[in-house]
Records
---
Amino acid sequence: MFSGIVEEVGKIRSYDLQRMTVGATKVLSDLKVSESISVAGVCLTAVEVGDDYFVVETVPETVQRSNLGALKSGSGVNLERALVLGDRIGGHMVQGHVDGTGTVSSLVRDGNSVRVDIECPSSLLGYVVEKGFITVDGTSLTVTAVTDSAFGVAIIPFTLDHTTLNERSVGDAVNIEVDVTAKYVERLAQPYLDRWNAGSAQNG
């Protein structure tokens, strides 16, 4: 479990879609083999830890669901270690289970912030609400607007300076994780909605 508060931006040293080596500093202070780490919003397991790097492994499901397949040597990635029980949660509860990818459709300077619109599948937008939580490339953000095809976020200067969001351009794919609470609510409510709809159809 993570909070979406990025600790540092690491650099990809090598990646063959199965084994990824990431150069880092801060997250290595207590990272151990077998522990979880969020890489660009994807929860992965550290299989090797060195003095200035760590190694994780990915499987086809990971590559298909995320933008990791587009990474190459030199690419920056947002990094966050798993939460420790009792720590403050500055963002929101993030699983690191990416739901899919969105596409940056616009970036507009707005005072000291940058407003970013991200197009994503309707299957994900159903869980996105204005002023709700959203995770983009592992960064916890607040939704500022929702349309039929996209959602918007506003990036403050500190977040721009300390994440890979300042490297994004129109057309880039970003990892999206919606608030898991919405998915559980839908799952629990679905049987009741199905019965309601079936009864309405019979009475109609």
---
Amino acid sequence: MDQTSIEASTVDSVMSRLGFWSAIMTAVIAAVFFLAGILTPPRSGPFAPPADTIPYPYTNVAAFIPNDYLWLYPGILLAPIFIVLMACIHAYARNDRKVFSQIALSFSVIYATIILIDYFIQFTVVIPSILTGETAGLSLFTQYNPHGIFIAFEALGYSMMSIAFLFTGAVFAGGKLERALRWIFIAGFVVAVLFFAALSVLQYDLVAFEVTILTINWIVLIVSGVLLSVVFRRAARGRSVPARAV
């Protein structure tokens, strides 16, 4: 085996192992994120019980700290792990499909940047300001404002993830497992677009789309993470390494 073949084999081995563990971690963290989101009660917007709804300016919430913010931790962890997973998919992709994986990786970086900024602001600006009573002008940034920056950034960030799903789906074109992955990723994007259109026509608040796209993406990440771990495990064993163009 020449030096080039040895180096290619080493790259495939590293990609497969890293891809396997990042896929597993994506599925696990997405599941924890999903569960934490469900267990965190809504306190404003269309899904909050009228009797428990926090009124404007949404800053009288010190009693709910830190419990109402714990669900953001898995969201912070998910962002860099998703980028690693997309990078592994890009390395796995056949040469003639790398343009799609590159686009998907680019959109995943956009998603991660938006979400990390959004969630980091909650922990470093919003929570300290609420606890110290420095709440002037804070209502626009708090997660409880259904028309605030937090919800807008979440909707935008997870929309970028959804677009990454679309292009990731174009990477897979092999056997039954890869075809399943393709349709899971594409379906995640299509369903998100349909819900956005429907909710817009019905004039729902943006928070309704934010909750919807979060739910869709969580499901896609959990299912695809499990399937991707199998793909990368097979690749590590030399059973599913895509053909490289020469």
